[in-house]
Specification:
elongated, three-stranded antiparallel sheet, alpha+beta, 10 strands, about 170 residues
């Protein structure tokens, strides 16, 4: 069975009954099985969101990362969606938490995933409606940048999203 270290099963016990799980060797997904409940235990991907936020000057909101991956480089604001949270609400929450900016989501820009990785990334476009640029523990610097004058980005995907949104080649 292929092993993907970044996708290893971290659950050893059934969340329903507490029995030790068995790894299903023949499973492509590497799922586990609870012998007591007699049911498979799936490893579901996390869902994350990021947003391309623009202001009245059509500049892009970016946040400098204080965490890996991409420590010290800039990224579109975003993060994980909480269980039971509406994705658009999570996007707006992450923007406010990371940058101090309020926004209105205007469109879905895309849904992205990569083989053998988590999370599934849902990307929105938005424009500012208020707030004040305010750094956070996770984002020690936040600023607006012109699309053709960007700082070093943490994720190549962010550059692709920006280029596609602004038709930059």
């Amino acid at each position: 069975m292929p092993t993907h270290n970044h996708m290893m099963n971290t659950h050893n016990y059934c969340s329903t009954c507490g029995a030790k799980l068995i790894l299903k060797e023949e499973s492509d997904s590497g799922s586990s099985y609870c012998p007591t409940c007699e049911k498979p235990i799936y490893k579901d991907p996390k869902v994350a969101t990021c947003t391309l936020v623009t202001n009245a000057e059509n500049a892009i909101l970016l946040a400098k990362r204080a965490l890996e991956p991409g420590l010290g480089k800039w990224a579109l604001p975003g993060g994980y969606v909480n269980l039971g949270e509406v994705v658009e609400t999570a996007a707006k929450r992450e923007i406010l938490e990371e940058t101090g900016i309020l926004c209105e989501i205007t469109k879905l820009l895309g849904v992205f995933s990569a083989e053998n990785t988590s999370p599934i990334l849902i990307v929105y476009g938005a424009h500012t409606t208020g707030g004040t640029l305010t750094p956070s523990i996770e984002t020690p610097e936040v600023a607006f940048f012109q699309p053709n004058d960007l700082p070093p980005l943490s994720f190549p995907r962010d550059g692709d999203i920006i280029r596609d949104a602004f038709f930059i080649s």
